[in-house]
Amino acid sequence: MQRREFLGSIAAASLIPGSSFAQSSRRRLIAGAHRQQILPADYPDTEIWSFDAAFPGPELRARQGDTLSVTVENALPQSTSVHWHGLRLDNTMDGVPGLTQDPIAPGDSFDYQFALPDAGTYWYHSHAKSMEQVERGLYGPLIIDETDPPDVDQDITLILDDIRLERDGTVANFDNFHDLSHAGRIGNLWLANGQIDPAYPLKRGERVRLRLISAANARVFRLGLQGFDGWIVALDGMPLSDPQALPDELILAPAQRIDLMVDVTTDENEAFVITFERDGGYAITHFPISGPSVAARQDRPVLPPNPIYPIDLANARAATLLIEGGAMGGMRAARLNGEELGARELASRGMFWALNGVAGRPDTPLLDLSSGESARIGMANNTAFPHAMHLHGVHFSEVLADGRLGPLRDTILLNPQETREIAFQAHNPGDWLFHCHMLAHHQAGMGTWIRVSA
Ligand code: C2O
Ligand code: CU
After folding, report:
1. Is the dihedral of CA 147, 149, 155, 159 positive or negative?
2. What is the pLDDT of residues 128-153, one digit of tens each?
3. Whose CA is nearest to atom 3 of ligand 1?
4. pLDDT in tens, 79-98
5. Ligand 1 centroid, distance to 85 Cα (angstroms)
6. Would you say the CB of residue 361 lies under 6 angstroms from ligand 1?
C-alpha cells in the first residue's frame, strides 16, 4: 500500500449527511460556486461549483415508489441542467438541454418531479457543458432505498472522482485539445466524496453495503478491496439475480456504479479501497478497523429485483454504431450539422469523434421505436481509446458471445478495437440521449439519440 507524496496527509471524514424525502415534499438544490479545501491543508483551497455549497452535492435519498421533487436554482455564471443518471424516469425530467428541456439560465430555476420505480445506487450531475461543470463539482449521489432494505451494519456511499487541479488550488483550464482528442480529461488527484483518502471506521465482522459511483470525467478506475470478503450485488443500480463473489479487480468506468455487500474479515487495523495505477496501488479510501476477531458470515445477500421489461431478442430491431475518431484513429471526415467536413475542419471546430459518420447530435435518431419494442445495437469501437457508452431512460443487457443476456446496465465500457452488442426493451417513451460518458468525447462529437414513441 502506498500513498502518493504530493497528496500527503489524510483527512478524517464523516459520512455525507443524507437527506430523506417524505413522499412528494419538494427540495431545493442551488447550483453555485463556493470555496472548499480539496488539496492537503498546506495548499490553497479551490473554487468549486457544486450543489448546496457542498462538494460533492448532498446525498439525495428517497424510497422506491416515492416521487422525487427537486427545484434546481441556478446561481452559476452559465446555464445548467441536472440529469438523474440511471433513473428510468419521465423523459421531460431527464435534464438534457436541447433534447428534453431548455437549459436553466443563470438566475432561473427548474422544477424536476418524477416517480421512482427502481431502487438502487444512482447519481445526479450537470448535463450542460458537462466536461467542465461535472469536473468543477456539479454532481452528487442519489440513493433509492428498497421498500424493505437488506439488513446491513453500515451503508456507505463512495462517489469517486479524479479532478485536475493546479498547485495553486484552481481547477485546471478546459481549453485543452489533447483532452478532446485523446482519452479525455484525466485528473491528477483521486477523490472519494470530495476528499483525498477519507477514513470510515468499521468494526470487525460488520456487514457493509458499499456503493461505488464514478463521477470521473474520463478515467476508468481499476479498484481493489483489501480487508473485506463479499459480493457484487448490483451494477448501475440494478440488482444481480446471481450476486458475484468479490473479484480482485473491479472496473469502474465513468458514470458506472457497483454495489457491494462485504464483510469486514481482516485481522489488520485497516482495510482499503485501492485504485490500481500504472505504478502501483494507492488507497482512495481507508477504513480503520476495531473490535475482536469474528468468523465471516456465510449468507449470500440477494437484493429484490426492480421491475423487469423482458427483451425479445428474436424480434428486436437492430442498429449498428460505428465509433470513429480521436488521435491515432484515422477518421478522415464526418458530417457536422449536415455538412461533410474533413478531419482538419472538424478539429478546428473542436470535433474529434463521430458515431456512424456524424459528429455531434444528429437530427434523426439512431432508432425510432414503438413503446414495448425490443432493440439491439451492435457497437464497434474503431478507435485507440476506451469509451463508456451511456443510454438514457432504459437499462440494457449486453448480448454475450453465447447469445445469453448479461446483467442490466446503463453504461458499458468498450475498450479500443472492441465490439459489443446491447439489447433492451423500449418501455419508456421519449427522446433519449445515447453518448460517451468520457465527457470530453461527448463534447467533441460522441452523442446520438433514440426515439421511443408511446
Ligand atoms: Cu450521466 Cu448523459 O449522462
Ligand atoms: Cu468516448
Report:
1. negative
2. 999 999 999 999 999 999 999 999 99
3. 85
4. 999 999 999 999 999 999 99
5. 6
6. no
